[in-house]
Amino acid sequence: MESLTEKAEITVSSLKPGTEYSFSVRTLVELNSTKLESSPVKISHRTSITMESLLRDLGLQNHLKNKLNLKSVLELRKPSDVVETAHSLRSLQWLFLRKLMMVNSSARIIKCASNCNPETCEKSTNIDEDQKGIHPLDLITALFHCADPFLQQEMALKMSVCQFSVPLLLPNCDTNECTLMLWALRDITKQFRSHSLEDDSLEESSIVLTDLPLISFVRLGKSSMSKSELLNKLLSNRQHHHDTFFHKELENGNIPRKISNGLVEMSWYLPGGEKSNDKFKEPVAVANLRGDISDFMVQFTFLSQTSSAVFLFCDDLESNQTFLESLRIRSKLVLVCTTDSANLGDNLTQKFKPYSEILRDRNMNEFKFAETLQETVVDILADSAKMSIEKMSKIAPDLGIIVDENNTICQNAKKRADLITQDITNIPEYKMKELSLQDKIWKEISKLEKEMCRLKAKKQNIEHYKSELKCQIQKLKRQQGSNDIRETIYQFISGLSCSPDEQLYFVKWMKINLDNLTRKHLSRLDEQYRDACKNVTEDNEHLRDLEKEIASSSLGVQHFMRELSQLYESTHSQKNSKYTAMKKLPEICAQLMLTGFPLELIDGDASNIPLTWIRDVLMALNKLTSPHNRIRVVTVLGVQSTGKSTLLNTMFGVQFAVSSGRCTRGAFMLLISVSEEFRSELQCDYILVIDTEGLKSLELSKLADSYEHDNELTTVVVGLSDLTIVNIAMENAIEMKDTLQIVVHAFLRMKEVGKRPCCHFVHQNTAGVAVHRNTLKERKILLQQLDEMTQAAARMEKIGDNKKFTDILDYNIDKNNWYIPALWLGVPPMAPVSTSYSEEASKIPFGLRSGLKNQISYNCHAKE
């Protein structure tokens, strides 16, 4: 476009936002009928972009105020909605979020189809005509702005598990402000083995509370080297390269960034204790500022004050001499440039005197250059200050940086949680004193209630024996109900009775505080236990005492909820003044379940269900969801430590909240909403997912009734379920057979009460392109074994003429078996989740459709 004006200025309209334009200006003068023309002056300028305009293109404009929440993101959608390629710009965010929630390491590789919806593309003002897509960092920035604080936490956690960098400073291009994402990162915990520790010592801690050296990478002006690519080489172990930081060579990396300039991302290098494999002996944090530091001085100043060293990439030292000389940096400054630019800037570096210079000549490849970077970082780490992200939050406000958790609601909830947890020093003693209702009396009641079902009366009269048991139970319940409510429990109830937002913050702060306490307590006990095991003269009694203390040193939100359940149970029948204070608790708990909070169904310590409490919570849930209250139940069973919780979390994108340092105990249930367009097909509005403790538990194996315990647990959850997933670790064949025997007994009992459950088997740690086809023989052998177990179980239970496994449940040898590869791609702590694991696990929920449909038609037929 060419314009001619007699004025010294001109207005150019119809420019696209976020687009770089080149302008050429010439002067025309007519002198004595002679036209003179000056040489053109050229300048480039990128037009600014508003957050609102980009969000409008993504269909997210309403979510700047009405934030996206976890419930909407985890909604179970039709398979056609979960595809690799988005059909419009507005579906990109849902594709990214679904893949991220399922910890799919390819989540950032998203694009619009070549046949992208024309209507959507035409209305987009921020998308280049030849680029149907958006830079992934822009999408991530937009989603963090549009997500509520709890979805932000979940996104950051899942990004960390995928070994993606996470936002530390989130920019807002409309207000030129940035936010320190302290709250968003609070859920991230990391495990590592420092070389300075003993060989078998493992550290686990919250990443925001851990003091670490921070190495920051920034750019001034143009740079021929990609910071992100070099960082990825720096962080990747020798055996496996991973793109922690997104860069221009990845898909859509060439699309210009619109709103993510000024973003500071963070990641970590964590040693695994293998000297031959670890690049750094101690953990280190790494930050990467997107964009030119001259445009983002607030972010650069923050990094210069919090970092052990700042690596500054610059190709033109001479042009930036004035800027460089004006810098006042507390941390060590390392200049990274090419040999050509270094020669031109010799005088500058003599004045400037950086800590170090790293020069790259044209013949040096990136791997060699990355080794040079590594050597410099190792040198800096030998003598560097350390700082946690929480400590950084004290510096941020002085620079005008907003801290995400510095708001009234969040801080009020924190004060409530701190009031409860601040005085906890000895967890077992605290539980006995403050959470006493779930201890000895409840466990004794549980034993008596089990005996009511078993009736091992020996020579006693059965009716007299039952009457005696009932009297003992009633006596214990009265004793339980006579206890005064502890002040701690009143404080906990008060926290749950706050406004919805403060309630969620309170529950989250409780979880954060209790997990931190549990980690510290268990770390100390584990160290004592290791020392005791090394001492060959150590008394076995001392070891057993330590084992008992370790087993009782888990403390989480579920223990406080369990105390409420016992308080509700003990006051419900009496209808006294205590009950008045308790009667709203089931509704509060049901509201929490609707937000994705997992509720304990079976108390894992007492192996019992507080029936009145669970019934009233589910009734409250029924009222809250009415008339859309049809629920189907999916349960997972399997041997301990075979990844059942991980499987469910990947399948549905959820996060079962169990306390730190322990495997799942008992059973937890979590509610997942079904999208409206999928409800008619599944004929339900919600899926209730039940996660169970592992069968064949090592802790319970020493007990005489461990087999009965596993049998009872399996029978209960199978009885509640429409569909049962049996999780099998392929390398554990003996325990697999024992588990299947337990499961078959449970399924057999279901047939006797008119249920015909559906069963699917998930075979973990299997790999191969044609694994399903090549394992047909193994599946037939498995079915043959299941038939034999069914016949044996039928004889033991004295139940009918059941010849085959398929006589008692819905099972298809071809469709009801799933094969999933190993979880990690490499060796933790630096390994991401295998993309194949995530993709195969995410297929399972949609493969369960036929099983749920068959359950519906079978149940309807049974009722008729």
* Total helical elements: 32
- What global shape is seen? elongated
The total strand number stands at 22
Major sheet, described briefly? Answer: 9 strands, mixed
Number of domains: 3
Structure description:
With 864 residues, this protein is an alpha/beta fold. It folds into three domains: 165-403, P-loop containing nucleotide triphosphate hydrolases (Rossmann fold, 3-Layer(aba) Sandwich); 407-583, no CATH class; 629-663 and 674-864, Rossmann fold. Helices cover 44% and strands 14% of the residues. The protein is built from 32 helices and 22 strands. The strands form five sheets. The chain has a nine-stranded mixed beta sheet, sandwiched between helices. Helix 16 runs antiparallel to helix 17 (462-482), helix 17 packs across helix 21 (557-572) and helix 19 (500-534) runs antiparallel to helix 20 (540-551). The protein is elongated, with a radius of gyration of 31 Å.
